Amino acid sequence: MLTTIAQRLIYQRWRRRDLERSHFNEPSVIDDSQNRSPERLAQTIETLSRIDRRLDCLPAKVKATFLLSRRNGLTYPQIVAQLGISQRSVSVYMDQAETCCKRACLE
Description:
The protein has about 110 residues and is mainly alpha-helical. It has six helices and no strands.
């Protein structure tokens, strides 16, 4: 049991690090002066943390579908092939995950 808990804590740390890296590596549409402020940075990190916590509450297939699409850039047909689910399921799962992320951003 302790091994499982330790592994999950490590995975959670890695996910957070990856989220932060992906956010900082992507070009932003917002003015650079706003991006550099400590307040904006803290707000962005908090929003990403809320989204990550929300995604952890989703069923495994919903979370996997969302991450394959958004993080790995796979198309719906590629996700269908990889997860062995229908295209309709991919659409439903993506809607669920996006709704979850929007709620996290509104908190």
